[in-house]
Amino acid sequence: MGIQKNTSIENLARENVKGLKPYASARDEYVSDGSPMVFLDANENPFDNGYNRYPDPRQRKLKELLARQKGLQTSQILLGNGSDEVLDLIYRAFCEPGRDNVLTLPPTYGMYKVLADVNAVENREVLLESNFEPNVEGILKAADQHSKILFLCSPNNPTANSFSRDRIRALLEHFPGLVVIDEAYIDFSSEPSWLSELAQWPRLIVTQTLSKAYGLAGIRLGICYASDEIIAILNKIKPPYNVNELTQQKAYEGVRDTEGVKKEVTQILSERARLIQSLRAIPSVKEVYPSDANFVLARMDDAARRYGELLSQGIVVRNRSGQPLCDNTLRFTVGTPGENEKLIEALKS
Ligand SMILES: *Cc1c(COP(=O)(O)O)cnc(C)c1O
Q: pTM for the full model?
């Protein structure tokens, strides 16, 4: 197993970020240790209703729980308003607009490109191979000294496969910038998380979210795991109160309820198997790809037509036909048993 070369993380950061100190908000300076204190520092309304105080900008309680569960330090965790904010912070900390570039591997999650455009960062696209695996040689050839981030979505949205560990390892060894492995769907995967290799790869960032397996898309909580050094840089630009109090509380409950999450994931996995089997028996479905996530990608005879037919029956799916390698494909999220049944019945008719 290799060691990443040129590991100076500080050198990858933007010039203006290198000099920054994290903004110290009022609530950052003193935290009650349980002994009674009088807080007259943040211009809050003093009357207690549970939410009159600013939330903990470092989200200590939630991070301690996550750190315990994952066997990491809290200094290796950054939390955001969904993974989308986490990904945006990574762009803004490391990519100089108009100069730096990132690499993405279509067909993949659309947000990487949106954030590249928003941040005026060049997005170099290297298509997945026909088996939906990363083209390692093509990626390394497309990279240069201004390539700051490589986005690997594994399991990948919308193709639903996990990337080969050997290929990811080769990219971790040779890609000159940060490697972000987006594990939004890791809880549905038969592959282990890359978190266990975090210590080994100083330029590795693993992102996860409560939006999928944890059933908490509505509270917006994204998680970034990386080296202390990377997290310290991201903390310099993080808005102090980016994770609100309601979210911190609800997230804590959700993360603590490992049994409840496991139960739902198990049910989704068995529904996924059933859905794949049923789809394979439907004439308008030409190919169903294996899935390591909570959705299934299927190649149809005529995706636009089937999409419209489903819609007219009140069933909304995602037409991925516009994406490279995804001609005539629909993406089906695994729903409840009843919802999946409705989908199958609609496709049959
Ligand atoms: C759904 C999804 C996310 C989740 O983003 P949040 O902002 O945390 O809701 C992240 N990455 C991928 C690839 C996804 O499909």
A: 0.96
